[in-house]
Amino acid sequence: MLSIVAVMLLAMSGLAVALLRTSKASSSLQRQDRENAHARYVAQAGLSTAMFNLQTGHSGALGTEQTPVRWDRSQYYVTQQNVTPEVIRLTATGLDDRAGARQELVVRQLPNTIWRFGAFGLERLHLDSNARVDSYNSDTGTYTVQNVNGTGTNKHANPNGDVGSNGNISLDQNAKVWGDAAPGPSHSATVLGNAFVTGSTSAASSTMVAPTVTVPNYTSLGPLTVSSTTTLPSGNRTYTDLVVGTNKTLNITGPANIVISNLTLQSGAKIKVDATNGIVEFWVIDNFILNSNSEIAPTNYKSKNLRLNLLSDNVINPEMNVVLDTVSFDSNSKFFGTILAPSAAIVVNSNFEMFGSMIARSVDLHSNANFHFDEALMNATGTSLPTFETISWREVPYAH
Amino acid sequence: MWGTVPVPANLMNMIDPQSSNPRALRRRGLTLLELMFSITLLVIGISAISRLTVGLTRATSVARESELATQAAKAMLERIKAEAFLQAFRSFNSLSSDDPSGANTAPGANFAIAGLRALPGDADGLPGEIVFPTVAGAPGVLREDVTDTKLGMPHDLNGDAATDALNHATDYKLLPVLVRVRWQAADGTTASTELKTILADY
Amino acid sequence: MRIPRRSSRSGFTLLEVAIVAIIVSVVLAAVGLFELSNRKTLQQFSAVGTAQDHAHKALEKVLTELEGASISTLVPDPTGALGADEIVYQKSTGVNSSGIVVWSTRTRIAMAADDGELLNGADDNGNGMTDERKLSITYNYGTGAARTVTIAHRICTLFPEELANGTDDNGNGVIDEKGFNVQRVGNLLSLRLAISALGGGGKWVTWSETSTLRLRN
Predict the structure, then answer these.
(1) Are residues A360 and A340 in the same domain?
(2) Which chain C residue lies closest to A91 (C-alpha atoms)?
(3) Global pTM?
(4) What is the Cα–Cα distance from C101 to A106, expressed in whole angstroms?
(5) Distance between CA A174 and CA A184 in Å, rounded?
(6) Whole-angstrom Cα distance, residue C151 to residue C54?
(7) Are both A170 and A315 inside the same structural domain?
(8) A327/A346 Cα distance (integer angstroms)
(9) What proportions of chain C, in percent to the nearest 5, are helix, strand and coil?
(10) Mean pLDDT over all residues of chain B?
(11) Is A252 within a domain?
(12) Which of C59, C100, C213, C217 to probe the A interface (max A CBs under 10 A)?
């Protein structure tokens, strides 16, 4: 009798033990899953805090394996590694109870301005026969004061006169670049003859996206021919044909936005921009002609105070009826400012001297064209906080 | 007890050879005491095991609910992560007038979960809740000076190296967020689970 | 004839034995019935629990696989109301010394007919389910080193409450989804899985799970 009872009790307790085991197994599995999920979110919290630090100008490293950062009841630590000067790898490890997780984020620091090159040809860039590119800093002083390095034909100011393209770059004959020549991703820079590039010629890792030129709409004041020294007050205006006569000067007081259909500076003509109270920005829709010895510059010769946007499209498209616009920089003309001409093919066939930065559809610099990139443009946007783009994110296996 | 059946002695011997031996009598059969004892044991054993079974089935359903809750919390966190970073706070706080695409267009801070019942006293009748560093009564104000160890607060949220009481609902660079699920379990008790992380713009 | 003295120790009367037998059999019957009903409920619960465990494990695996996937490498790109019932993707394996991402080989997550089953409308493997699928991950898909791992069996043909009729019958945002479904809305990926398990009394129970994750690459 007792044995029967004992057998039954044994059977039932056997069932109970089996039940206990399965429920314990699934509940411990659940707990493990929950802890793993927690650990992943803790790692993510670490990554976010590290990115926050990077974005506010600090280092992305947080805590160490021995002294992790505490976050409520969990901990994390983040290490930073600079893969290249602009590419940063952050590795965050999150620890929650018995679980751990590790994630890796790779970001690239983005430049905060498009004005980083002496000349940038979106489709291609070519320099030959004594064309030169170097750099200086208009905030430090004039170009003449900084033009003290090297001798003779190799005299230059600073070696940050980069040239770039989203396509190929070619240099020939005696072209000289004191800076980098950065072709687009998967493109190349060819340096032939006695041409040289003092910096790197390796391809950029991303393309430059040039902003589109949007011409603002102001009331048209018709044509304007400057035949004697004229001063335009600050404000916004549109002209159809603006011609500055031989050796005449047009003064413009900033801040001003000026839209012009055709701009011509006769030989010796000058446009001087007084940017004490604000910059002056030009939009030229069709023809832009600088004749010999003409000059467009701010009164303080700082290129960040003058912006020229060329809507001009002088590249013939077989299907379209496009009027061939003239973009011409003539001998000994000088321009101080930034030029944005994403539709224009700019060919400089003379001693044209540019102080600032130029972005055009394509750039051909010949015979003694002289470009001086203005380093002061790099901080021209006013903000000094770095921005980043995410390149890659992945979960890294982590064993406690 | 009710009288024995008279049996002739020799028959008795044949049936029960030991009946005449008083010493052997003690080993044979069960006393009523022993029987009662074994039945009581049986009953105790059965009730214990059945209670265990019932408890385990209840625990299984509670575990399943807890699994549902964790899954729902994870899904909601992923959804908040998928929102445009600077719109996440205004979309998922409990203030409907600051929703980025217009009043009442955003999901808000409370959400339902299929298979879970909210607590009886829950203000909005939904078991899920999204918590940001805000102060009670001002759900539209994202503050850096809130004290909440779960969220890691107080902490600078907009990168100006200061922890102030201003509203950073539109200029935050760091966003701690906690998703809490509180529900009434199958056995009537209150159960809750939480998942939290910190979001940044990347 | 000697009448033996009545002894309280030597056995029981027939009546006593009969009554005890009745009591014991009643108790045993009660216990037996209770055990039986419990076992059936238990089996039911454990079947749901089993299905839940399977679905949960499989979905977790798919989630961790897809979390590092790059949106631009998804084939097919499961946008749209139908989603997709298979997916090929590549994950980042880090960056090289120039800061360029190195992508992994392709991985494929897809369903196939479950072991012993052919997709012919009949229960070929005799387990009570018709045309059930299994979910497999194929690493190095499309290369000679392809390796397939099965992560879940007994996946339903169609999602619970869903019929192949062109409408979203169960109101979960996907139309005519099969037992495994992937859908992308922006950088949010939804994964759905429905698994069956055999419960007590030969009844099939289905457990369905949905998970979402934000794609990061």
Answers:
(1) yes
(2) C94
(3) 0.67
(4) 9
(5) 23
(6) 9
(7) yes
(8) 7
(9) 30, 30, 40
(10) 81
(11) yes
(12) C100
Instruction: Give the domain CATH number at A394.
Output: 3.30.1300
> What's CA A292's distance to the chain center, in Å?
33
Q: Which chains are adjacent to chain C, needing at least 3 Cβ pairs under 8 Å?
A: A, B
Domain ranges of chain B: 69-200
Half-sphere exposure of residue A321: CA atoms within 13 angstroms, side-chain side: 0
pLDDT tens digits along A77-94: 999 999 887 889 999 999
**What's the Rg (C-alpha) of chain B?**
34
Q: How far apart are CA B177 and CA A74, in angstroms?
A: 15
Contact across the interface for B38 and A1, Cβ inside 8 Å: yes
Report the pLDDT value the prediction gives residue B68, as an integer from 0 to 100: 84
- Structure-token match 């903000």, residue found: A383
A213 and A242 share a domain?
yes
pLDDT of res. B195:
92
Facing B53 at nearest CB: one of C23, C24, C38: C38
Chain C partners of B37 at a C-beta cutoff of 8 Å?
Answer: none
In chain A, which residues have their Cβ closer than 8 Å to the Cβ of C67?
395
A201 and A345 assigned to the same domain: yes
Comparison of pLDDT for B67 and A385, the residue scoring more: B67
Please determine, for the modelled complex, whether the ipTM score is greater than 0.95: no
Instruction: For residue A72, give the nearest of B49, B152, B174 by CB distance.
Output: B152
CA dist C98 and C109 (Å) reads 31
Query: pLDDT for B85-123, tens place per residue?
Result: 999 999 999 888 888 888 888 888 999 988 888 888 888
In a domain, A284, yes or no: yes
Running along chain C, 217 residues long, what does each successive block of 10 average in pLDDT?
Answer: 53 75 74 67 68 82 86 87 90 85 91 86 82 91 90 87 84 86 88 82 78 82
Classify A220 in phi/psi space as left (phi over 0), alpha (psi -120 to 50) or beta.
beta
Specify the DSSP class assigned to residue C176: S
Write down the pLDDT at residue A343.
87
The whole-angstrom distance between B57's CA and the closest CA on chain A is 9
Contact A196, A189 (CB under 8 A): no
Residue A14 lies in a domain: no
Mean pLDDT of all residues in A150-169? 90
> What total of structural domains would you count in chain A?
2
Range of the domain at A64: 33-112+383-400
- The predicted pLDDT at position A345 comes to 85
* Residues A134 and A103 both lie in one domain: no
Mutation target for B interface from A72, A110, A385, A393: give the one with most B CBs within 10 A.
A72
Structural domain includes residue A3: no
Cβ–Cβ contact C202 with A under 8 A: no
Contact A304, A297 (CB under 8 A): no
Hey, where are the domains in chain C?
A: 38-214
Least confident of A270-274, A328-332, A352-356, C145-149: A328-332
A164-185 pLDDT tens trace? 999 999 999 899 999 999 999 8
C-alpha A305/C-alpha A143 separation (Å) is: 16
Residues in chain C closer than 8 A to A86 (CB atoms) = 99
Greatest mean pLDDT range, A1-5, A233-237, C168-172, C198-202: A233-237
Q: How confident is the model at residue A318 (pLDDT cuts 50, 70, 90)?
A: very low
